[in-house]
């Protein structure tokens, strides 16, 4: 029992990427099982309700739509993301000779934040009877009007999960670019590492818009801010539901590539090893990953061809959607060329990877129909879309399952049962291919999506067939995981765990030893802060209960006192982490010349990477604020008359107070620069003087905004929910104000570390990073001042047609 407790404590406090990766994989399997149960319920509901006897059953209909919503969200945001991030944690450091991930503690925090995401998402099912589900795409007005607390739990979980995945993306980018072994050139780097690098760039840019959409939905649900819903008879306080579609799909389509790119990388790694030759067109495969990532941001609107009436964006998005097939085709060509002439070993991992090619090609061919606008208008809301999408998602699953088999002997030191692995492959392949082919066929015949019963008898046999083959697929998955579980304890021992497949003799090592030996100190704080987001989320809902009728009936949300206590406790824990952990680490490392700012000692050539780190953080913040600010200009163009009506009720924003606030904040950029220069010259007194001036100016800005400007605007009737202009103004300006506070906290922490001697004139990275972030906050205020205070957005002309 003591050994078990020690093992549990080890995993709860670990910062080792290998162990964190294993926990990601276990959590992903749990979510996969839950999402699979939801899928089986949906298939059973449809197959058990013949068209001739179909009646409107509110119980089945409402519960069906909740399972449908959670199945889609869990498969994409939980299972697939967690599985691929888990494999990346385990494999990327080994494939590039890195001692660990760049931010070990943040990596642990990112994982533990997935626990609240998982808990909130699945606990929403307990409230299915309180209101309609919102679909996995979260579209308003369902998502804005549903009274169910389950909707709020999903949205809060998405915000937490989005932050977790964004931090993960930055972590992998820094690991691959800064911790790669010095003798490994970028173009000679592992193809899986290349794919993770491209996918991580998408995480940094695509996840913030999803969080923005979730925040806007929460604000509209509980504070009545009119972003998406229409208020009859009041155009000045009406939003546009299509705006959320733009926001969601700007995330949603890159999300597909966030998942498929790592799967492609795994396919590249396993195919070349099982074919016993280096991948053909190695550089082309690597560069095509980046090309796919870049193009993926220019295709989101093809999901909206029925909502967008202007042919110009339709044609543009159709062309870019077709263009993304080019780098994907490059990969397929090179994979096939790698197989040609190779000595192929048709073991189970290779079978899974070859089936990835089959499903990916068929999924790609069925996807060719959607950029053709006239075809998309007929197919977009049918089962043909589900067939196409499940081909692609199942291909991703084949990549992950095949890689897990290939690396199983590395991870465990034991072999899996080959016959059971081949049997599971056969069942998954036949079950999946037939189920998705029947989906496509039913879609061609017009079978609509999201129905809990088949509306016409001609497609009912297809749905029965889908259910049967889904059961076969599920049986294959049960055998697959049972095989791994049994082999974990009883499998045949591996003779050479470092190279069980004998691939290193072909110049393809699975493990590249790092230059620096990894060192992991147990740390409980990531677990405490990560899991602590569960009471934090419930505390936020308790605060909203005071102003939201939708939360009035939930007695376990105890009100503002509990909410404030939860938020205050979380902040106190964050302060405790810094004082008890980071300050301690700084004291230990301050005399170590060239030491890293985290627990892994790194070569001096890699010292000073915090400036690079904060640059990626700022890039994600640009995506965050960019989503909000672009929404303002979208609303001005599309809701032109309503915006003009709202303009009549906007008070004068240019006042002596607003000018003084702005001057103070912009002046603080100069004082921040002088603080950094003083430190570089070794003038600690000058540094602390300029730091005090910077913080004083920032405090004046935030205090004047929240305690002087806002009350004055409220007195004029300009309140957050009063009009569409007010909703955007208060939301974005307030978020900027919180970022000012974050910047002040950042400066305060840096000041403490300078006082401890950790940051100094020879190691100024923390001060430079704080300065970078402060300049970014000031720059955002320039954009907001131009947009709202000087009224640049009001000068925009109306759209010639609806977009």
Automatic annotation (TrEMBL):
Its main location: membrane. Its EC number is 1.9.3.-. It holds the Pfam family COX1. It comes from the Archaea. Residues 3-529 form the Cytochrome oxidase subunit I profile domain. The chain crosses the membrane at residues 21-44, 64-88, 109-129, 149-170, 191-219, 247-267, 279-303, 315-336, 348-369, 389-408, 420-446, 466-489, 525-544, 556-580, 612-634, 654-675, 687-707, 713-733, 740-759, 779-797. It is a multi-pass membrane protein. The keyword Phosphoprotein does not apply. It is found in: Membrane. GO terms for cellular component: membrane. Keywords: Electron transport, Heme, Iron, Membrane, Metal-binding, Oxidoreductase, Respiratory chain, Transmembrane, Transmembrane helix, Transport. PROSITE patterns: COX1 (PS50855), COX1_CUB (PS00077), COX3 (PS50253). CDD domains: Heme_Cu_Oxidase_III_like (cd00386). Residues 521-793 form the Heme-copper oxidase subunit III family profile domain. GO terms for biological process: aerobic respiration; electron transport coupled proton transport; respiratory electron transport chain. GO terms for molecular function: cytochrome-c oxidase activity; heme binding; oxidoreductase activity. Belongs to the heme-copper respiratory oxidase family. This is Heme/copper-type cytochrome/quinol oxidase, subunit 1 SoxM-type. The lineage of its organism: Archaea, Thermoproteota, Thermoprotei, Thermoproteales, Thermoproteaceae. The gene is poxC.
């Amino acid at each position: 029992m003591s050994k078990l407790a020690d093992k549990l404590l080890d995993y709860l406090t670990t910062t080792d990427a290998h162990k964190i990766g294993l926990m990601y994989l276990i959590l992903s399997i749990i979510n996969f099982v839950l999402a699979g149960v939801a899928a089986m319920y949906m298939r059973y509901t449809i197959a058990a309700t013949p068209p001739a006897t179909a009646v409107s059953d509110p119980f089945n209909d409402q519960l069906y739509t909740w399972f449908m919503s959670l199945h889609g969200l869990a498969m994409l945001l939980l299972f697939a993301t967690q599985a691929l991030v888990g494999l990346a944690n385990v494999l990327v450091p080994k494939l590039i000779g890195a001692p660990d991930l760049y931010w070990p503690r943040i990596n642990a925090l990112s994982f533990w934040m997935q626990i609240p995401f998982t808990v909130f998402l699945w606990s929403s099912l307990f409230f299915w009877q309180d209101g309609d589900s919102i679909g996995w795409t979260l579209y308003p007005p369902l998502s804005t009007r549903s009274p169910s607390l389950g909707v709020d739990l999903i949205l809060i979980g998405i915000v937490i999960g989005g932050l977790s995945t964004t931090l993960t993306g930055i972590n992998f980018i820094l690991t691959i670019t800064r911790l790669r072994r010095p003798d490994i050139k970028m173009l000679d780097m592992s193809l899986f590492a290349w794919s993770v690098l491209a996918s991580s760039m998408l995480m940094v840019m695509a996840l913030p818009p999803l969080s923005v959409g979730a925040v806007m939905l929460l604000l509209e649900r509980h504070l009545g801010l009119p972003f998406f819903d229409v208020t009859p008879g009041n155009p000045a306080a009406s939003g546009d539901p299509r705006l959320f579609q733009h926001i969601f799909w700007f995330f949603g389509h890159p999300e597909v590539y966030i998942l498929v790119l790592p799967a492609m990388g795994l396919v590249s790694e396993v195919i070349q090893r099982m074919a016993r030759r280096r991948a053909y067109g190695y550089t082309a495969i690597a560069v095509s990953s980046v090309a796919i990532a870049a193009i993926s941001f220019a295709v989101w609107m093809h999901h909206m061809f029925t909502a967008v009436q202007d042919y110009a964006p339709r044609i543009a998005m159709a062309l870019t959607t077709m263009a993304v097939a080019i780098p994907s085709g490059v990969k397929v060509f090179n994979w096939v060329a790698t197989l040609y002439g190779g000595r192929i070993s048709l073991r189970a991992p290779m079978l899974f990877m070859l089936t990835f090619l089959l499903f990916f090609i068929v999924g790609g061919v069925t996807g060719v129909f959607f950029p053709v606008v006239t075809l998309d208008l007929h197919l977009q809301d049918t089962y043909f879309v589900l067939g196409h999408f499940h081909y692609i998602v199942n291909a991703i699953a084949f990549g992950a399952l095949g890689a897990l088999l290939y690396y199983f002997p590395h991870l465990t030191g034991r072999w899996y049962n080959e016959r059971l692995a081949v049997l599971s492959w056969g069942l998954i392949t036949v079950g999946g291919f037939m189920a998705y082919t029947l989906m496509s066929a039913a879609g061609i015949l017009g079978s609509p999506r999201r129905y809990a019963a088949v509306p016409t008898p001609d497609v009912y046999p297809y749905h029965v067939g889908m259910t049967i083959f889904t059961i076969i697929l599920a049986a294959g998955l049960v055998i697959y995981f049972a095989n791994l579980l049994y082999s974990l304890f009883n499998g045949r021992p591996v003779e050479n765990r470092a190279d069980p497949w004998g691939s290193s003799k072909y110049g393809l090592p699975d493990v590249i030893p790092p230059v620096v030996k990894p060192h992991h100190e147990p740390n409980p704080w990531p677990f405490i802060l990560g899991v602590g987001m569960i009471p934090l989320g419930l505390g936020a809902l308790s605060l909203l209960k005071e102003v939201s009728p939708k939360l009035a009936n939930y007695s376990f949300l105890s009100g503002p006192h509990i909410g404030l206590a939860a938020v205050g406790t979380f902040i106190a824990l964050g302060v405790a982490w810094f004082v008890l952990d980071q300050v301690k680490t700084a004291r230990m490392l301050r005399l170590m010349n060239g030491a890293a700012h985290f627990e892994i000692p790194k070569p001096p050539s890699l010292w000073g990477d915090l400036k690079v780190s904060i640059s990626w953080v700022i890039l994600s913040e640009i995506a965050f604020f960019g989503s909000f600010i672009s929404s303002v200009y979208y609303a001005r163009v599309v809701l032109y008359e309503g915006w003009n009506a709202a303009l009549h009720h906007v008070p004068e924003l240019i006042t002596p107070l607003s000018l003084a606030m702005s001057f103070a904040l912009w002046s603080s950029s100069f004082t921040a620069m002088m603080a950094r220069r003083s430190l570089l010259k070794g003038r600690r007194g000058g540094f602390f003087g300029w730091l005090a001036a910077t913080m004083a100016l920032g405090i004046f800005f935030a205090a004047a905004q929240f305690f002087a400007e806002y009350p004055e605007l409220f007195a004029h009737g300009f309140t957050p929910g009063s009009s569409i202009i007010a909703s955007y103004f208060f939301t974005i300006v307030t978020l900027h104000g919180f970022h000012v506070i974050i910047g002040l906290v950042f400066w305060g922490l840096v000041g403490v570390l300078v006082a401890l001697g950790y940051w100094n004139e020879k190691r100024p990275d923390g001060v430079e990073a704080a300065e970078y972030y402060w300049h970014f906050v000031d720059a955002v205020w320039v954009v907001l001042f131009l947009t709202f205070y000087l009224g640049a957005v009001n000068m925009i002309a109306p759209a010639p047609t609806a977009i």
